[in-house]
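DATA CLASS: polypeptide
GOAL: derive structure tokens

***
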Amino acid sequence: MHAMAVPDPTAASARPADPTAVLDDTTAGARIVRGGLVRGGGYVASTLLSFVGIVLLTNHLGVARFGTYQTVISLIVVVGAITDAGMGTLGLREYSQLHGGQRAQLMRQLLGLRLALTAAGVSVAVALALTLGYDGPLLLGTLLAGCGLVLTVVQTTLAIPLGASLRNEALTGLDLLRQILTVAAIALLVSAGSGVTALLGIPFAVGFVVVAATALLVRGAVPLVPAFQPRAWVALLRPALVFAMATTVGTVYTYGAQILTTVATSETQAGLFAVAFRVFIVTAAVPGLLVTVAFPLLSRAARDDHERLAYALQRLFEVTSVLGVGAVIGLVLGAPFVIDVMAPTEFAGSVTPLRILSLAMLSSFVLSTWGFALLSLHAHQAILRANLVTFVVSVIAVVILASLDGARGAAIGAAIGEVTLAVGYLLALITGDARFRPKIGRPIRAVVCAIPALGVLALGLPSAAALFLGLAVYAVLLVPAGAIPDELTHAVRDRLRRDGTAPSA
């Protein structure tokens, strides 16, 4: 029995069909590729919608107030990571590895535990906001954002069976629903002239709708009533403690860059960094989303077949490398265009910080694969060590460099942290098993393809034109260079062939 398993004497009531049986099927790989494409497409749509929201926010709030807004959001994210204790990700792993009634019991205990921890964390966040000197409206905004976090925790816990059974279309629909409602709420409040407090309350209002939609999708497949049994919670937390610490440290170092920048430099510089940081976070979330699609398969392979795991990791490394290089190209060439679209002219100073952060994007993309690999192997201590080292390096770098060079220095410090974490994860992975050592042939080809793409800068084109031309050059060169894994090209061709031959309605 796995460490997190909680025996359930009512196992006979479990559903007869195993919703995760698809993970052992020969079609699992193809399903993951298709699921990755669906989730990737959905994320692109969500990202475009989120940019609309950022445009509205930056124009409405201005540099200083947007910096304050983003700092509160970062505070809630950090508190959420601490109180989450990594249980969401571990829940997906355990659901993929457990059987029958153990799953139902796990889900009830997990929901109760995460609710209790998050509620406690929101209380701490409000107390911390009070300590930082926030006034009444900001304290209320922090509380509302925290309540939104509670609803998000409920929703992501209920959605675990969807991920474990590779129902990525449903997950994508929920993500899009959340983003559409969020942007609509931002537009409504901005048009009404609302302040930071009301805007911080949007996740709370949106959360109710998304939780209800998720509950409908998983009804009958997962218990909706949480269990509040502290003794069982201890059984869940004890083996997860090390990973929880790693997750906490990792999130603190990432979002702490924004908080430390606010302390180390002026409000204006913190606001300039906030916009660049927001774009970086949104872009860097792409690989985590894609690897999460494959995580149930990685977990099952880590339990049963390390050769299969090594094969899957290599393909994920190749895909994330190609995408990471593309992200570097896109942000280097398109930074002026992105900032100009997202924010008024007073945010022009965010262009250089964004370009600096983009140079770490390749590290951000590949470390997701290695991090999830370590997690699937239960290598919690290795994850913790890598995150602790990164935390120390990042804090020192951000504080010193932000105090010396404002937003640009903060961006350099954050980039140093990303590279440090990627190196730490890789060393931990290959030290544990040489079979997981990545082959760099295809990633090197992708880097070579990036050279002429980045050369577009020399043409002196407007940023938008340079962005699209550079990415087009990169995309055209990838296939003849052999940089794209065969499985991905075959999946795309098969999908296009089916779409092209499908009978019309």
